Amino acid sequence: MMGLVRGQMEEEMVPFTLMVIMEGCTIGLTILTKTAMNGGMSPFVFIAYTNALGSILLLPCSFFFHHRGSEAAAGGRIEQPLFTLPLMLRFFFLGLTGVAISQNLAFFGLYYSSPIVVCVMGLLIPAISFLLSIITRTTKLDWRSSSIRVKVIGTLISIMGAIFVQVYKGPSMRKAASDDKLEAKINPPLLIFYSTPDRWVLGSTLLAASSLSVCVWNIIQVGTIKQYPQVMKVVSFYSLAGTIQCSIFSLIMERNINAWKLKLNMELLLIIITAIFGSVIRSTVHVSCAEMKGHLYVPMFKPFGIVFATAFGLTFFTNSLHYGSVIGAVITGMGYYTVTWGNIREDELLRKGHNSKDAADDQKVPLLQEDSQV
Questions:
Q1: Whole-angstrom Cα distance, residue 67 to residue 57?
Q2: pLDDT tens for each residue of 113-135
Q3: DSSP string, 260-304
Q4: Could you tell me which residues come within 8 angstroms of residue 222 by beta carbon, excluding any fewer than 6 positions away?
Q5: What are the start-end ranges of the E strands in 119-270?
Q6: Beta carbons of 325 and 116 less than 8 angstroms apart
Q7: Closest CA to 107 of 200, 25, 33, 165
Q8: Among residues 248, 267, 309, 236, which one has the least CA distance to residue 50?
């Protein structure tokens, strides 16, 4: 009995712990990236090199990840070939929306704002996805449905929080003393959370546009996974497509040859760590947790980034975290969880409807059999 309880606790705690660690590491890397870009690193170079190394690492890992699954399913249905024109077109647009457009917008948004604004605008994804589903008429705006009403309310709350972050930055939550300001001028800080002068509204707008691009990517990805269910292979090939697109765009935008020359410094280390973490570790953990706990489990941890960003901003930085950002983040987080709760409610209703239909079919089968026997 104790062994069963312990096994159940481990089954719950392991994915929970991993997801929390992933969010903490993501915020940590975001702060490091902000520091490197403020130090003169070209965002175009960083995006191109990071995605190139990530694709090189992810491609063989994806085939290894699905090797056992392929052996287990060898006697099942015939899998669709990977290199077909429809799938290749999907990989192209997945790379365009999920890598090239979204990452360039996100990193420039980070450059003009701060890591907590990145978290806030990332929380708009469920709300934007819901609005897109209404615009494309894949979701019917039925006010009689409780899940629809919940998602509408959550969307409005999320948008209000994002607007609040844009229009009101507010005073610093932890102000630097005069001695600290003098020390910062003499010795620049090792890490940067927020820098002045900023372009707060522009950075927020770019990050919101990045979230819109991610929502379009999500729509394309759902249809792609239905055609080819080996998720990690899909990720590796659209990452490769996105890398090629990013490289072409970066070469056009960044023509300074010296910016492309890598040295043995923090920038090279950051590129390597980001590529390994973002392309291999985080992707593998997300896919594994989604398979274990369901497709809505991973998004539930997105607001944890606000907690980490706030904790890092208050603990290690002065004049970096503002009241407006934190208040807006809390409001947006409430909207995020409200929309997510609506999605969970909708899934439950669909599952119940599906189970009721199966039960009705099961009840009909014996009657049909009896009729055939007569």
A1: 16
A2: 888 899 999 999 999 999 999 99
A3: G---SSHHHHHHHHHHIIIIIIHHHHHHHHHHHH-TTTGGGGTTH
A4: none
A5: none
A6: yes
A7: 33
A8: 267
